[in-house]
Model the fold of this input.
Amino acid sequence: MLRVHSCLPDWPECSLLSAEECSQINGPHSLLLSRILRLAANSLFQVGKVEKSLNILQISCTVLKGVVHHDYDDFRLEIASTNVEIGRNQEKLGEYREADLSLKRGLEVQVSVLGWKSPIVANTLDLTAVVARRQGRYSEAEAIYNKSLHARLMSPETRHNDVVIAASFDGLGSTFREQGRHHEAFSLAWSALEVRINVLGKQHPDTISSIEHVGTVLFALGNYHEALAKFDEALFLLGSLYGKRHFRVAHLLIHRGNAFLRMQQPDKALDSLRLSQTYLTECFGEEHVETARVNNSIACMLQRQGFTDESLRIFEHVLIVRSQRLGNRHKEVADTYYNMARLV
Done:
């Protein structure tokens, strides 16, 4: 039995209800409780407690089961929004197939109630594109990002909002980078960064994401010193915002480690990668795709240093995780096979 009060110790009496008891609440009270739970879940997500956040979102869905038969748009959109947030959390946990289903359920309702030009629909499309990217479906992701951009340009609410348009540019840029279209990616990433700095300021989480993104494109272009400067800048800002033991900090440490590796500084590379490994294991466990990603970088470094047996052992574990999570046809699975073949 999941207990809401385990995550909301200082909240009112309704937070002491179990998931089963929550499901018995009907009408407007269920909608209010669902929104309280979603607020708590999103607060936990922001500080990196993704799995606990997912548990609360699932309770929120249970709360709304008693009103599913009502044809009120508010209830339908509440369920859709909760499904979208569940999909967001599942993506962070590496549960890509489950995330796909959750996001599609939410998107279908949002489109039927709000239409394709809604900014809310555009945000859900962005999340759907991220899941497609994670699974290596780059052409599909590009098409979804373009649909999201079109929705934002067609909406009177967002067509003149540069920050919102920058979100589409950032997503498209990430897809281009992963397709090897680095110069196109840099143009979009830099445009998004300039807008976010001017409007949101450097301390905003979206601006920090853009700084990181520009760094990853510079790395892909072979500008390792410039990339490292961006990673260090983002790392400082992110640490000030969330603290050091956050999954986004761990991602930056991977980028930083890979930059040091290309700059022939293996000791600094290993320090960053080991620290990232610690944080990701704490956040997600050893069987997560992101943990496998940092382990893959560590194995590559050990391979270069001549530690063949240890490198092979790590690659074998990475291969198992990636095959299970991503499927055997994913690019990262192929990369792992290639790395292992070089050891033979």
User: Anything to note?
Assistant: The two ends are 50 Å apart (CA to CA). The chain has a mean pLDDT of 85. Residues 83 and 102 are 5 Å apart (CA to CA). The domain at 161-243 is CATH 1.25.40.10 (Serine Threonine Protein Phosphatase 5, Tetratricopeptide repeat).
